[in-house]
Amino acid sequence: MFSKMTIEMSVEMERVLTGSSLPLFERAAVFATVAHSKAKRKGGRIPYLVHPMEAAAIVAEMTDDEELVAAAVLHDVVEDTAATVEDLRRYFGERVAHYVSQESENKRKELPPESTWKLRKQETITFLTNEADRNAKILALADKLSNLRSVERDERSIGEKLWERFNQKDKSLHGWMYRQIAEALRELEAFPAWQEYDRLIKKVFENQDGL
């Protein structure tokens, strides 16, 4: 089924993705469930799938664009699993594949992730500032708001130990990244999601230099 995935999909699963009458969102959820199977969120036991589903819910609060909601469900499968853009194009169409591709970092897997962290985040900021259309910005906001909600909850629970779980352990650099993305997404500031994102940045990073 997937171009590079080691998971073997049943004939029934293939039918669900290609020939069933299930709505796009449900088919995307099936794909994401398989792609992220057994994966957990960093530093915990929460299934990874919780994050893209939350991002999809945030997108759905901002738009009724079904393809963009599906892209939110799928937004990490190219970056973090063996699924490819070609897989998404086959099962979900060009537009969904396009937005997932734009949301996916070039992780430069041949290099230590901590050594490329700031470069990768700067590439995202530059893209959102100079190239992204409104839909790509909505998708990015949903992704980052979901992540920041998790950060805020976990910092309240375990304090500064939270930052040890990340490739980049400098809290101030995370603050820089979240604030720069907020500015890049400022055209969305009328949405409650952007306003919540902005509040959480201040709450988590209010004492950090450079914000």
Number of helices: 11
Strand proportion = under 5%
Q: How many discrete structural domains? A: 2
DSSP, total strands: 0
Q: What does the largest sheet look like?
A: none
Q: Roughly what percent helix?
A: 55-70%
- What letter string, H or E per element, gives the SSE order? HHHHHHHHHHH
Low-confidence stretches: 1-8
In angstroms, what is the radius of gyration? 17 Å
In whole angstroms, the N-to-C terminal distance is 46 Å
Structural notes for this entry:
It is a single chain. This protein is mainly alpha-helical. It has two domains: 10-104, Hypothetical protein af1432; 106-211, no CATH class. 64% of the residues lie in helices and 0% in strands. It has eleven helices and no strands. The protein has helices at residues 11-18, 24-35, 50-62, 66-73, 77-80, 85-92, 94-103, 113-130, 134-158, 171-184, 192-205. Helix 2 packs parallel to helix 4 and helix 4 (66-73) packs across helix 7 (94-103). The longest helix has 25 residues, at 134-158. The protein starts with 10 loop residues before the first helix and ends in a 6-residue tail after the last helix. 33% of the residues are buried. Residues 1-8 have low confidence and may be disordered.
Key terms:
211 residues; mainly alpha; Hypothetical protein af1432; 2 domains; 11 helices; disordered N terminus
Can you lay out the helices and strands and say which pair or pack?
Elements: H1 11-18, H2 24-35, H3 50-62, H4 66-73, H5 77-80, H6 85-92, H7 94-103, H8 113-130, H9 134-158, H10 171-184, H11 192-205
Helix pairs in contact: 2-4, 3-4, 3-9, 4-7, 4-9, 6-7, 8-10, 9-10, 9-11, 10-11
